[in-house]
Amino acid sequence: MSSTQTSTTKDILTNSATGTKNDLSSGNGDARLATKDVLGTILKKDAAVVEGGESKESTTPTENEGVPIVEQASPRRDSPNDTVGDQEHPGEDTNNASNYSIPNLDHQKAIDSSSKRKRKGSKKGVGAFFGIGGDKDTAKNAATFSGSSSARKQHSDSLSTDETAKNLLEMIIQEKSFAVSFLHLQSIPALLLESRDVQNNLEVLHLEFTDISVIPLDLMNFMKLKSLNLSHNKIQYIPEEIVNLGDMTYLNLSNNDIEEVPVLSGLDLRYLNLGGNHLSDVEDTICDMKQLEYLNLANNKLRQLASNIGDLSNLRELHIQDNYLTSLPSEICSLTNLTVLYVNRNHLRELPMDFHSSMRRLHDLNVSRNYLTEKTLENFSKMSQLRAYLLGSNRIRELPRGTSCFDTSNVEIRMVDLSNNKIHSFPTEIRRSAKTLLHLDLRNNYIQSMTTGIKYLAHLKRLDMSRNKLKTIPAYFSRLISLQLLRMSHNQVSSIHPDAFSGLKDLEEIQLDHNDLIQLPQNLGDLKKLARLMLQYNKLKELPEMIGDCPLYHLDISNNELHAIPVTLGQCITLHKLVFNDNLIEQNPNQLTRLSNLQFVNCKNNPFMKNFTHFRKVDEAREKVVAQSLIQTLNDLEMEATDSDKQLTQELAHRMQQNIDQRSLEEILELPDTQPLTCSVQ
């Protein structure tokens, strides 16, 4: 369906819905009665669409009750491999299809961007979505018809049914497409299946999130159908007769409950998406479709691939992530036209021997969350089109010395992800990618220090080395002049060289929380773009006076050993959130009253707070209310809890009840005269 056609359809639908709304606002409730029964005739069942806007339910009493709201689809099954590590890989889940245009393989990654995407949108009237809410002429005739109310209703019903069904069919036949989603249909509408003109003309049928459970055999009469999308439904079985749809090039049955796939080799498919089902095996005949360019089998229960997968000579994208694969067949190396390959979240221990030399056109490769070792990195540079090394959550201990995996003479590596591995030293070989590397992720390893190799990464924008064993930040760190984001939380950093941050003019965020820092560089105020500074859970005794020169938005210095807040912090008018609880601050921080944009402050558990009896008592009152509310919640949950949970629930509720001050809320809030407030607290 072209964009022009789509726009025309939306105009028709909007005008039709608007006409009905205007007539109803004039008191013509019979038009709504007609619309209601038209829906019953066309869809065989009342339903409600969920997609943008508010629910437009009838406000006029009818014989039928209100339109029921569509239920949420049952969630997809969890990934088979919930390994340690929180990956942030682009394009990792690719089963969703939400584009209604005729398939174009150049933008199918946008169509299939997530295998577990949840339903989005709010309620909207069915009539407005289908354009069957009663046009202006129908509403006018229904409003002006004379006689008894039953006669008016009978005339309106007949007129609306005939006109609306006719208009809808004409629109479908003209555009040769029909696409709706988030509608509680349960089956493909009989209006489509029984129309000979629709059967002879329809080319695109997309019915996502419509609770369809069966693919009817009548659908096999749609001989001109080219694109069929029944994803995110409840389909369990694919009829063998589907091969009769000889013109079909696009088939998306992802996120259903399919356990078996029939022989599809009779189809001329270029795009096939079966991701998010319950497939444990796939027939070898699927590889007989040599014209196939896109194949998605992700998020299933596959333990092996067909040995003849190499016959898919035109395949450009292969998605087999989230399965139980322990190896890849050597025949996969015959897929020399492959540009995208996702095999993450499997149980792979190695890649085929000729994998690197064969996959020379790959530009997207994700092998994260497997059991691969450093041997995998050898000869990676032979894949000259590769843009990212996504190797997180594997068993890599080091980069082989002298390896050419990061040689960028023929490769433009933008991102390297080696997070959640077993690396003990900073991978010096990464300096080979200095000219192109933008994002380096080494979090959750065992790295103790940064070598001089890091100073060559002048174009690096994001560096994540959190959850390692780093102890210092050296002076040559200042060579990372393009750095925008620095994450080094949960290390053992106790010192930062005075010049480590000098020249980092683009640095916007620093996360150094959960370390052993005692002091910060005095020139921290030179970071003129620093908006977020996380320093909680360190051993800081003071902050640099120049910190007020930073355009901070969020500052967290809680759980340190600070004795005072710098006066200059009062100049930081951009500050919105300030957290400095659990320190040793004794003097009232009056300078904070000048921060006009400050929206949140947490300054609990500081000595100066003892002067504010008001705050202390309000906190007690608040905590009491929260605790009582939680106890009630726990008691409510206990009724639905399993036997194994009841004991724990009861114990937690009992302990919380013991900790509540038995004084009444009114008694707690009987506040004595206290000194005036000088600090805004939330």
Automatic annotation (TrEMBL):
Using the record's annotation, list all stretches that form the Disease resistance R13L4/SHOC-2-like LRR domain.
Answer: 269-388
PROSITE patterns xrefs: LRR (PS51450)
> In terms of domain of life, where is this protein from?
Eukaryota
Q: Which protein is depicted?
A: Disease resistance R13L4/SHOC-2-like LRR domain-containing protein
Please give the organism: Percolomonas cosmopolitus
Q: Specify whether S-adenosyl-L-methionine is a keyword of the entry.
A: no
Q: Where is this region: Disordered?
A: 1-31, 46-124
Q: Which SUPFAM superfamilies match?
A: L domain-like
Q: Which UniProt keywords apply?
A: Leucine-rich repeat, Repeat
The keyword Repeat belongs to this UniProt entry's keyword annotation: yes
**Basic and acidic residues bias locations:** 46-57, 74-92
**One term under GO cellular component:** cytoplasm
Quote the Pfam families the UniProt record gives.
LRR_14, LRR_8
Q: Where is the composition biased (Polar residues)?
A: 1-28, 93-102
Which parts of the chain are coiled coil? none
